[in-house]
Amino acid sequence: MMIEIILILIFSFLLLNYIYFLSNINKGLKSFQFDIQAKIPDEYISVIIPFRNESNNILISLNSLASQNYPQEKFEVIYVNDSSTDDSYEKIINAKKPINYKVISLPEFSHDRAFKKKAVSYGIENSQGEIIITTDADCTHNQNWVRELISGFDSVTGFISGPVSFNERQNLFSKIQSLEFAGLVLSGAGLIGIGKPAICNGANLAFRKSVYDELHGYHDQMHLSSGEDELLMQKIAAETDYSVKFCWSREAVVFTQPNENIRDFLQQRKRWASKGLFYKNKLLVISLILIYLFYLGFPVQLLLSIFLSKVFLISFGLSLISKFVLEYIIIKKGANFLFRDDLMKYFLQTEIFQIVYITLAGFLGVIGNYKWKDRNLKR
Q: Range of 253's domain?
């Protein structure tokens, strides 16, 4: 009987913590201003695009960016080849490009991780911009993307996170991914809204080069294979007086490709999960651990209801209903912004899928290595 009470108290604590977390995200989302008139800042802009083996996407990326509604003399685009083994480098180097576009190759270096950080850093080293934008070679962009993303920069802004969405496909798995990914983007936006930036996406962000230099770039992250986006944002928020913003604009949304299959999806999420324990903000690390334990509690409570007591079915049900209701409220805010409203009919399938994958990927991301861009990487 005592063990049941202790376990129920633990699950109740994890539930209350998760409710508090989601309530803060919802509060943060309410703080954003919409439809602000975009403006062109005085600073010169450099868009950095690292790529490796993007033969199917590289020219689509080029065509997308070449149509930017932004003064050509005010920005440059730098593609950084990260040791591609296909013909993506040949395609981009031989393609017709605007005069402010260039392609460079990352020099060979002896390292077993941090490849993307090296590529982005090399692009920044060879850039002229006072504001750096990063995106990926498998993304497409609205013609007003640059204008909208950087419009929030002022004298006190050091970093702007932008929205990312998936290109829509007809299969169920891509629809589930679209909703689940929207939840991550909205969570990141909400945390920025309450002044506690934690997650963002390197496919759509901008920061001041002077701040990047002041913090010595990614020098303290080279032991990690991923995390250049979030870790830089967190460092700017914690170690400088500059503010971090989220750009809530439909025209600033960057579109990328959903994963083709479950295997690729898990590899991606293992890579994302692998950096969480290395955040410098230990309160954030504790918060992430508690959230993971909340998700782990779902299968554990089901097992306990079978082998110990049916009372755990009640705690399981309360946790599930609370999660569904609060996350529905949050994800609904992304309708017709990050995804079409009709995708909400896949909400229940997405919620169940999320519980399964977070429980699995969170564990594997901490203990294991992963594969990315045909590379077997260490955490």
A: 31-162+200-258
